[in-house]
Amino acid sequence: MGDATEEALISDAQKVFLRQLVLVKEMEDYHDLIISCEGRQWKVHRVVEGETQCIELKEEDPNMVDALVDYLYCFDYTDGRQIQSTVQSSGSNTLSINANMYIIGDKYNLRDLKTLAKQKFQTALSSSWNKENLPDVIRTIYDNTLSSDRALRDCLIPILESQKTVLRAREAFMQLVSSHGEFAIDLIDAWADLSPPNPRGVSERDWWCENCQSSGHSNDVRCPECNQELQGFS
């Protein structure tokens, strides 16, 4: 059997598996765990047996929990729907949804969710950077990710640099720059075409992580997604 045929069979099997997961999600008779958040509930299935029958996510936005449950069953989530957040003030566009899903993935150590959210964020960025809530999205990213976690930040900076004439004239954007030092430093470096300080003396370069399939351009020697030592810099 050729490689192409095997890949096609695997792809078909994956599609069948995902369809079955969607069906299982809707089978209420087999639900044995409840996730609750701000008065909303999701009936789900425990992967590992335990005594806990209800998990309350007090700090999360219920709309993000809804997307999280979708991801846990379907390995995907919808980022194009208009949602009204009762917790987050970062708006309702796709950038906000994907930024928050990345943060949730980081919080609950869901590496594949982080990778997916980054990909969706980067895809949406080219058409959504001009949204009014862009400063709120940027603030969400910088307030809820570590300085060493460059995944979403490195998606943002190039397009902010390319649109600097437009953004420089926007009061809300410049207020964010004046109030958020860490973001301001990244932006100044980009707008002045400067490279950030490099205490390790390692030049920036493209990298790809074999462990979690993340990629980026930095001087990191370990993957910011999974902390795996990077090999094969280019």
List the helices and strands and how they pair.
Blueprint: H1 3-26, E1 33-37, E2 40-44, E3 54-56, H2 62-74, H3 94-107, H4 111-128, H5 134-144, H6 151-162, H7 164-168, H8 171-179, H9 181-191, E4 205-208, E5 215-218
Parallel strand pairs: 1-3
Antiparallel strand pairs: 1-2, 4-5
Helix pairs in contact: 3-4, 3-5, 4-6, 6-9, 8-9
Concise overview:
The protein has helices spanning about 5-25, 60-75, 95-105, 110-130, 135-145, 150-160, 165-170, 170-180, 180-190, and strands at about 35, 40-45, 55, 205-210, 215-220. With about 230 residues, the protein is mostly helical.
Question: If you had to describe this structure to a student in words, what would you say it looks like?
Answer:
The protein has 234 residues and is mainly α. Strands 2-1-3 form a 3-stranded mixed β-sheet, with helices on one face. The protein contains 9 helices and 5 strands. 27% of the residues are buried. It is globular and about 60 Å long. α3 packs antiparallel against α4 (111-128), α3 (94-107) packs parallel to α5 and α8 packs across α9 (181-191).
